[in-house]
Design brief:
With about 625 residues, the protein is α/β, with parallel strands linked by helices. It has 18 helices and 27 strands. About 30% of the residues lie in helices and about 20% in strands.
């Protein structure tokens, strides 16, 4: 048992190590002396279930192997809080994160693993001019820092993926695969993902989604009628629809929420025979599927005989049919001479409506409506900045009603957030059904065609849009009395921006001569980057310790020092210098589960560190780490 505190791991979740541990838990006998996996022994254990053939069904493309290397590489980055660009930063549970979504998804793994109820994404359709990606996607953080001007370098940039490139589809797949893989980890066991796509990559996306989620977890392909009038200028066909692919994390544990019944749906029920059970609608009693006991004839009220029809069969056997007729559940028509039909009573149907795969623009909106919403709330100076692929909030609200639970605080993630219509839709839907769903929006700060004073990037669009949505709702709320006791709506969002870690990394790959090592040691006398605030450090420790970015944090004063109490004392974070036994004892007396302190707070006093380890251990603190 060591007398020194552990070092806080400043990298993101280790995906490969997580999988290794799970495999060893299931098959401990395959562990080698060095803690690695003996695949030959694993094959023996699994027997005939192992496919060792060279030819097998699956999808491959240039770079697929590198995708796994990319997603397995932990991120050393952080997310810096930006209260000045946020709305109600201290109280809101909504997030807008500006950064490359691959790095952000890695950083969210520890804090949001298995916590997201629904994901919606509208990724680039790979049309040849709307797709930006790192030139070397395996160096995503460095590329992003150079792209956003956070470090000085040349040659790294984001660009379009043109059809002239010999690896047009491969590059798109290399971009999408690791992001989708990481996103799946964030879904709850009863979670679901909706993905907007068009014909360019629909087939390819379905294949990689089958690969990641499992073909058995495919739910449906929705067809959204995105325009309300045909394009007569089209060369072949007027493209009037897009697709939305639906995959569940586990299909057996996910079911769509029923949609609210509408007046139109209820109007289909009537009561022409004054049945005391109330309004009803009728349905066909026959089907084409062969049913041996469904071959018979029945006699109606007027003596007319009815068979099931050529090539058709009654759905019930004769005994069941007679029982239904005796219970007045068979409708023979007003004159009793019609083909019999089954009465289905409104009082007995489901409280809601099962979602349909065809989404009409009259019901869920269209692209023109989406652009009008963006113009209204983003406050453009130049209409050239209107995004062509933006989705209407009516469409997204429809998906949110299917994928989340009314009245809940479900988390919805959109890591291709664009101008923020998902956040807009969640805010409106929460208002309608008095819920507290939370959103996480992630968007690259891609420059707009015509940069404006405040709104210069697509990420700025999302912030501007949500700010104005909130302003309008607050304006409407002002002066209203809460007579019904409705729960208070979340009117805000916290902005975080992707950046390199606040802590200077030790360069183990650098030169090992005395002069170089001395320089590294000098850098680590103060190993915090210049210009980083206490809040920057606090949120990095919070994120790297596995706490969500909206976790409540309370500042306590103990022994004259400031200590941040996370989630009612589950974690204490002390960023003070000049630590003493008094502050160590004061923290230990509060009995937190975990404690993190700055290493430099001990001023090189190893004896004080050793004493701190013992004091915390005696008070039941399960983890004491320094950073």
């Amino acid at each position: 048992m060591t007398d020194q505190p552990e070092k806080l791991d400043l990298s993101s979740h280790h995906i490969a190590e997580d999988k290794r541990q799970e495999l060893l838990r299931l098959f401990p006998e395959v562990c080698t002396e060095g803690g690695k996996i003996d695949f030959e022994r694993l094959k023996l254990i699994l027997g005939n279930t192992v496919d060792v053939g060279k030819e097998r069904y699956g999808m491959n493309w240039p770079g697929k192997a590198d995708c796994f290397k990319t997603l397995q590489q932990p991120s050393p980055a952080t997310l810096r809080p930006c209260p000045e660009e946020s709305v109600n930063f201290d109280t809101t549970e909504n997030l807008i994160i500006e950064g490359d979504n691959l790095e952000v998804l890695k950083l969210l793994q520890k804090s949001y693993l298995g916590k997201v109820k629904m994901i919606y994404i509208d990724p680039p359709y790979n049309t040849g001019n709307d797709f930006i990606y790192p030139d070397n996607y395996t160096e995503s953080l460095q590329t992003y820092l150079e792209y956003t001007g956070q470090v000085d370098a040349e040659g790294k940039r984001f660009g379009t993926n043109t059809e002239a490139d010999g690896r047009f589809h491969s590059k798109w797949l290399n971009m999408m695969y690791p992001r989708l893989y990481l996103a799946k980890n964030l879904l709850r066991e009863d979670g679901v993902i909706f993905v907007s796509i068009d014909d360019n990559e629909m087939a390819n996306f379905r294949r990689i989604a089958d690969d990641i989620f499992g073909e058995e977890n495919f739910v449906a392909t929705l067809i959204w009628q995105k325009v309300f009038s045909p394009k007569n200028t089209a060369k072949y066909f007027s493209e009037d629809h897009d697709y939305i692919l639906v995959f569940a994390k586990h299909k057996e544990t996910w079911l769509p929420e029923l949609l609210p019944r509408t007046e139109d749906a209820n109007d289909r029920y009537a009561n022409p025979d004054n049945d005391p059970r109330g309004p009803w609608s009728s349905s066909d009693l026959t089907a084409r599927n062969y049913y041996g006991s469904g071959q018979y004839s029945v006699t109606g009220r007027t003596g007319k005989t009815f068979g099931s029809g050529k090539g058709r069969y009654w759905r019930q056997n004769l005994e069941k049919f007679k029982a239904l007729d005796a219970d007045n559940r068979i409708w023979w028509g007003e004159n009793g001479a019609n083909m019999p039909r089954l009465k289905r009573f409104l009082s007995e149907v489901k409280e809601g409506i099962v979602p349909q795969t065809l989404l009409l623009h009259t019901t869920v909106g269209n692209t023109q409506e989406a652009k009008k919403e963006l113009l209204e709330f983003a406050k453009f100076e130049n209409t050239e900045n209107v995004l062509n692929s933006v989705k209407p909030t009516r469409l997204l609200r429809h998906l949110i009603k299917i994928g989340t639970t009314p009245g809940s605080d479900d988390i919805v993630l959109d890591f291709f957030a664009g101008s923020g219509p998902t956040g807009h839709a969640i805010t409106l839907q929460n208002l309608e059904d008095e819920s507290r769903r939370r959103f996480i929006l992630v968007q690259l700060p891609e420059p707009l065609p015509v940069p404006e004073k405040v709104v210069r990037t697509i990420a700025d669009l999302a912030k501007s849009r949500m700010t104005n949505v909130i302003k309008e709702l607050i304006s409407k709320d002002s002066g209203k009395l809460d007579l019904d006791g409705a729960q208070k709506q979340d009117r805000g969002f916290r902005v975080f921006k992707l950046a390199e870690s606040n802590f200077k990394p030790w360069n183990a790959q650098g030169a090992q001569d005395a002069q170089s090592l001395e320089k590294q040691l000098e850098l680590h006398i103060n190993h915090i980057l210049d210009g980083r605030s206490a809040d920057d450090i606090l949120y990095e420790i919070l994120l790297k310790s596995g706490f969500p970015l909206t976790t409540p944090v309370e500042a306590l004063t103990l022994a004259g020092k400031t200590v941040h109490s996370v989630d009612n004392g589950k974690l204490f974070i002390c960023l003070e210098h000049g630590l003493s036994l008094d502050i160590i004892r004061a923290m230990a007396e509060k009995k937190p589960e975990r404690v993190v302190c700055l290493d430099e707070g001990f001023s090189g006093n190893d004896q004080l560190k050793a004493n701190a380890v013992q004091i915390f251990r005696t008070k039941g603190v399960t983890s004491f780490k320094t950073v």
